[in-house]
Amino acid sequence: MIRRIFGCVVLCGLVASASLQAHHSLAGVYDLKKEVEVKGTLTRVAFTNPHGAMHITVKGADGTPVEWILTTGSASTLAGLGFGNNGPNQLKSGDEVAIKIFPAISGKPLGFIRSIVLANKKEVQISTGSSRD
Amino acid sequence: MAFRTIWTSLALAVVVAAGAPTMASAQGGRGGGPPYTPAASAKDLRAVLFNWTSYMGMLRGLDEHELITTLEYQGNGTMQVDGQPCTIKKYRVSINYQLPGQRTQITCARAGGQTYTNVEVVNGQYAWNESVPGAEIAGTKGTVTPMAAAVQERLIRLWASPQGAPKAALWGVNPTIEWGANPSVGIKDGTTTQGQTSLTWEGNKPVLTFPIPGVPGATATATLDAKYMAERVVVKHAGGTTEFAYSGYKDWNNKLNLIDTMYAGKITERRNNAAVRDLTTVETETGSVYVVMPVPASVKKAITPIVPAPPERPMPAQAPGPGEPQIPAQAAAAVTPRRADGKPDLSGNWISGGMNWRYGNRRCGPTQAEGCTPAINQTADFEFEAPSRFGPNRPLYKPQHWDKVIALDMWTNKEDPVMTCQPLGIPRQGPPRRIIHLDNEVIFFYGQYADGGGGNNEYRDIPTKGGKHDPQQAVESRYNGYTIGRWEGDTLVLDSISFVDTTWLARGGFIHSSDMHVIEKLTRKGNEILYEVTVEDPEMLVEPWVMTPKVLRYGGAGQVQPERNHCEVYELNDIATQIRH
Asked: How many Å lie between the alpha carbon of B36 and the closest alpha carbon of chain A?
């Protein structure tokens, strides 16, 4: 199921399917009351279980690159959303993307993905806030 | 455990499970709204009991099941010992509402400076004092003193407590309702009395009257405040009156695990107008940690229960957990297919229920902290929803492991082997999802998301010719053990030894030793397999853990199973809170 939702991030709460949530409690790592957007270049896309991940290099204010590790749904969940090495929402290293995330409580460059604006400007909601997705 | 080997009740449970969507809709609807919302002006018993548990933060998951099962409490203050005040240095209460049982570890300083220590325990109709927690259990050193005369006093303290009183009031309505039922279920709208629980109003304050479970003739009267929390519970019993006063309600959990379960900050207990205990809360842990209190043999011998054990309360029907397949709605009446050797043919896909509750974005309760969202509730509710945490069937660890199990569970996001992508192992992996039955072996395939999340696609290839374990093969440890199968009539018995000691039996910090011995039994009848597991681990457990059996339903001929996925965990070093999966 592909969701193309523009600008609904505030209303849309958390997170893809229940299956990924079952793995560990997101509230144990991420601040679910905050939202941060990071923009940069994808350096690695891992379609893994229990959580997929994207590494994104973001240039800091002084130009220093910082690598963020952003986790998301499982490979299966992402495939259901059309994300994969193929598929309608193909992601690959080198893509310029903007990603809205729940940042890690620890303050490290780590987050849980809410939505992604792909290189082709399409925004894809990953966390829709409904457990029935 | 009563339904350990009873086919009929299990079959019934599955029939009920098949109707789970209907049941859920009776509570508000699968895919529908919340199960029950009292009208703002409602003054009936149903509304008050719902509000009491809702305001106390006891309702969890999309169907708002009442899932507070155990509780740890620490306080300080003053208590009376031998009629004299004693200044508390340690006051730790561990409660298991399902037993029901309560252990209170006390250290206090008397007026003369001497230290008084005691461990007060009650479990059902047995009460005793311990010199150390778990004394006399599995060879634990220390002494035990039976306290027959204290049973009723301790049960009253348990059931009149801030979280115990609403449970007792619900028990008064229906003592045999299934565990975890939403408090609105089965209560008629518009009434003020149902069963043995009744409601009156004193001005704007609801006043509920209900019996104390297990104490004949004891009646509690609870006066709730404007936020539906008990400010006073008065228990009359045997000509005496015990009055509990509560105030300062909030989430007293450790700040690493704030989950909006309320508890009183000030607790006073007076008997016949004389002070008994005066407590100030320091901290609670409400997230279903491991609390047990096995009755020592010497206590069982010394005390004759005056009240028979209460009737067993049923578990909710099994339902698929997150990511788990739906359970086929079919009867077990089909003829059992058999192989040429006459044994039941186990081949096929097999589907079983896992989690009992329905996950989802639960609405925010009336007393939840600012910033609450349904999405945050979904993640905070996990710690209540694992069936292994909820019980009531838990492995019984030796006393020296009790606090370790609690600590592992509190840091489960770090400690759970799932977090390092390890296989769940047997028995946590649950039953197989596909079986290929060959002449002298069975091949089991397992799927992802066993135990309510986690786990990978795994397989086992098990010989079924019987015989003994080969000592040389037994040297090496495995996740699923070294298994030999044999047939006992129509039952395939799998006998496994040589386990790694890094896997868990289930969520909840349930560790085991490498000497664990697991017996699985698979009995096919029609289109169902009864899957029973017993875990023996004398190094860790007081007694074998007979797990609650599962019924697997035939899901068609063998379906090709995916391979194990790549697994990688990124957040392990960034677990910052104890809000757990």
From this structure: 19
Would you tell me how many other CB atoms lie within 10 Å of the CB of residue B552?
26
The reply to whether A11 falls in a domain is: no
Categorize the per-residue pLDDT at B329 as very low, low, confident or very high, splitting at 50, 70 and 90: low
Q: Are B558 and B434 in contact (CB under 8 A)?
A: yes
Q: Which residues of A touch B579 (CB under 8 A)?
A: 25, 27-28
Q: Are A115 and A129 in contact (CB under 8 A)?
A: no
Residue B475 lies in a domain: yes
Total tally of structural domains belonging to chain A: 1
Q: Considering its fold, how many domains does chain B have in total?
A: 2
Q: Which residues pair with B268 in a beta bridge?
A: B245, B278
Chain A contact for B326 (CB, 8 A cutoff): no
Chain A hits for B423, CB-CB cut-off 8 Å, are none
Cα distance between residue B387 and residue B215, in whole Å: 29
Nearest chain B Cα distance for residue A17, angstroms: 8
- Residue of chain B nearest A128, judged by CA positions: B375
Pull the structure tokens for residue B461.
């290839």
Cβ–Cβ contacts within 10 Å for residue B1, how many?
A: 10
**A83 C-beta neighbours (distance < 10 Å), count:** 26
Among candidates B374, B379, B567 on the partner chain, residue whose Cβ is nearest the Cβ of A21: B379
pLDDT digits over B126-175, tens only? 999 999 999 999 999 999 999 999 999 999 999 999 999 999 999 999 99
Query: Per residue of chain A (133 residues), what is the pLDDT tens digit?
Result: 333 332 222 222 333 333 444 456 788 899 988 889 999 999 998 877 777 889 999 998 888 999 999 988 777 777 888 887 777 888 888 999 999 999 999 999 999 998 898 888 888 888 643 333 2
* Residue B435 in this model has a pLDDT that exceeds 50: yes
- Domain limits for position B409: 348-357+395-559
Instruction: Tell me whether residue A1 is in a domain.
Output: no
Q: What is the DSSP string of chain A?
A: -----SS-TTT--S-S-HHHHTTS-GGGTB-TT--EEEEEEEEEEE--EE--EEEEEEE-TTS-EEEEEEE-S-HHHHHHTTEESSSTEE--TT-EEEEEEEEBTT-SSEEEEEEEE-TTS-EEES--S-TT-
Q: What CA–CA distance (Å, rounded) separates B378 from B62?
A: 8
Tell which residue, B53, B293, B315, has the closest CA to residue B155.
Answer: B293
Tell me what the mean pLDDT of segment B223-252 comes to: 98
> Measured between alpha carbons, how far is B104 from B93 in angstroms, rounded to an integer?
4
Residue A62 maps to which CATH number?
A: 2.40.50.140
